[in-house]
Structures are given as structure tokens and as C-alpha cells.
Amino acid sequence: MKILTITRRSQILLASVVILAILVILGIKYDLTRHLPTATHSEAKKPSSDFFTPIYTLADDLSIQATPFPQPSVLIAQHLPYFTPLHRASYATHKLYSEIWGYGYELMQWSKYTHVKGLSNKAKSINKIYAVHRLLANELGKAEADRHDWIFLTDVDTIVSNPAIPLHVLLPPATEDTSERPEPLFLITQDHNGFNAGVMLLRVHPTILSLLETVLREFEQILNGPTEGWNTNDQVLIARILTENPHYAKHVYEMPKNWFNSYFSKDDRVQLQVHLVNHFKKKYRFTPIIAENFEILKQAKDLAEKAGYPNRHGLDLLDYHRDAEIAGQNWWKDAKGGIENIRFLWD
């Protein structure tokens, strides 16, 4: 597929940061609940009353051009059935991040279950799995040259803190030798409770489609069974299927949590985003994380100009970028698949 990268005049990136800051600030002040449009980049200039329309026109302001880009390719996906200020900030930072590195971005708003008597809020998290199943099936329906390689499924309580960390350098190399170990298809992290389903990387592959279908079948059986089983959420269902099916489990690889599922800002040199999980949403403000993002964008712009590259975003010139490349290369030299060292929380 064609992947996007950025070329632009030196003043544009700073202006884009200001635009994004205004969007986030306004989103905090006014809790607007209008749906986002499903416009593609080519449709960005069509009139719309949507609050986030400037995010789409931002792509034009940045003078984005289609150019070859290193593989593997990434599609960032977020399930966003409703808005809160935090959700708006998450959307805005991930959308801009996708534009910077030439990744796809998909906002999934469809929910199969919203008002089911007896269905707990925790169980409603299964809507994310229904949505990503639909997205993955759509990708597999495309010609191989047109589909993405990976789907980065990240919750809407995650904020990009360091845009200089590109996802693709942390993924298994496109030339991965599967003769020595199972093919990496499902990349996860775990915290003190074990497996966390808030951030996952899914290979666009028939095996992962089958895994999601198995999870959804399990949920439908629970939904149509005794009501005491209705508290089952996406995390528990995925855990159950992985522990019962070695065919899926062997393709699971645990990734360093701090890379893209850190619970605290500046946990590590290689840290893409912060996940304000559970009570952290109320305990910590997300605006300092966005400020950190903006500061890194400004540092990159200044460095690119000093180096004589006024048409580059400059993020690839920062030490963070080099650290991420080295970390990814070193990690995949010895990575091992399987769930032997993964803990699962069953409630």
C-alpha cells in the first residue's frame, strides 16, 4: 500500500501544534458529542460541522505527499462510541501521530451492544472486539499490496507522549524468519495484574481473524446463557481462548510494557504513549502529557532547521528515535512466543 510521510515548510509544524493545542483545549472546555466524520484524507476539504474538521485539513497544511516508506505498515485503530475530554485528546494525538509517520488511522464508533438488560459496563468492552473484527476482516478482503500489516488497537484513554517513537521500528522485521520460532501475530503487554487488553498489536492475518471470531462466539454463548456469566469482559474472554487454544497461544509475544502501554509519563526512553487506566483518569491530568508531546515536536523542528533540513519534521533526528530503533532490533533477536510467562486476571 502507499504510505504517507511529511515534507513541509519550517513554520508549518509549529503552527500545526498550536492548532492541535487549541483543539484539545476547546475539547476540554466544551464537551461536544457530535460524531466524527468518516472522511478519508482525500475528502478532507469537504464542508463539515464536525468539531475536529481541522484535524483533517491539518494533513493538507503539512504538505503530506505519498512516498515509499519502510515496512511493516501500521493501521492505528481506536474504539470511540462517545466523547469525553480525555477521549478527544486521545483521538487528536493519535490522529496527528498517524499523519506524521504515514500510518493509517481508523476511528471505530460502531457498537453491537449498548442497551442489553443485565449486561455490565465491563462486558460492554466486547464492543471493541466486534469493531476490530470488522476492521480486520475488511483489511483481509483487500489485495495484499493494499492492506496494512498490523493493527495497533489502543484505548481512548491513551495519550501519545513521544511522537519521536515510530511504531514500525518496534515491530518484528518484515523479513522475520518463522523457521526458528512461531510467527509473531499477537503482541501484548502485562501489568501487575497480568495481561492488559487496553493496548494490543494484531497482525492482519487469517489466524488473528479466527482468534477474534472464537472470542466473539464465546461471548455470544455467555450472553445467551446464565446471567451470572454476563460480567465477562474482552480481557477475560481473550485470556480464556488463549489458555485453551495452543494454536493461538504460540503466536503471542509479550512486549515491553513501557513501549506503548506505560501508566506513567517518562517511564522509559522508549515510550510512545501513556495509558490513563482505571482510576488514573481521575488521579492524573492528561494535559501535561500533551505538553510533553508538543515540546518534543518543537525540539525536532528546531533540530531539523539547525541541521539544514527545513522540510523535515525532524523527529527521526532525535535520540529518542535512534533509541527506539536499537531497542526494537535487540528485542526481536531473542523474543520468544507463547503465554507461559503471561498472567491472566479472571474477573
C-alpha termini separation: 41 Å
Arithmetic mean pLDDT: 79
Number of spatially distinct domains: 1
Q: Which sequence of SSEs, written as H and E, runs from N to C?
A: EHHEEHEHEEEEHHHEHEHHH
Topology, number of strands: 10
Text of the CATH class = Alpha Beta
The outline comes out as globular
Uncertain segments: 1-19, 22-68
Indicate the CATH architecture.
Alpha-Beta Complex
- What's the alpha carbon Rg, rounded to whole Å? 20 Å
Count up the helices.
11
Assign the structural class, choosing from mainly alpha, mainly beta, alpha/beta, alpha+beta, or little secondary structure: alpha/beta
Could you estimate the helical fraction of the residues in percent?
Answer: 25-40%
Largest sheet: 6 strands, mixed
Strand order of the largest sheet: 4-3-5-8-7-9
CATH fold-level name? Spore Coat Polysaccharide Biosynthesis Protein SpsA, Chain A
CATH superfamily: Spore Coat Polysaccharide Biosynthesis Protein SpsA, Chain A
Bin the strand percentage: 5-15%
Descriptive keywords:
alpha/beta; 11 helices; Spore Coat Polysaccharide Biosynthesis Protein SpsA, Chain A; two-stranded antiparallel ribbon; 10 strands; disordered N terminus; 347 residues; six-stranded mixed β-sheet
What does this structure look like?
This protein has a single domain, classed as Spore Coat Polysaccharide Biosynthesis Protein SpsA, Chain A (Alpha-Beta Complex). It is globular. With 347 residues, it is of the alpha/beta class. The strands form three sheets. Strands 4-3-5-8-7-9 form a six-stranded mixed sheet, sandwiched between helices. The chain has a two-stranded antiparallel sheet with strand order 1-2. Helix 1 (10-29) runs antiparallel to helix 3 (85-101). The longest helix is centred in the N-terminal third of the chain and has 20 residues, at 10-29. The protein starts with a strand and ends in a 13-residue tail after the last helix. It has helices at 10-29, 53-61, 85-101, 126-140, 206-223, 234-244, 246-249, 257-260, 280-283, 287-306, 319-334, and strands spanning 3-6, 64-67, 74-79, 104-108, 150-154, 158-160, 186-191, 194-203, 252-254, 273-275. The model is unreliable at 1-19 and 22-68 (pLDDT under 50). The protein has eleven helices and ten strands. GO terms for molecular function: glycosyltransferase activity. It comes from Kwoniella dejecticola CBS 10117.
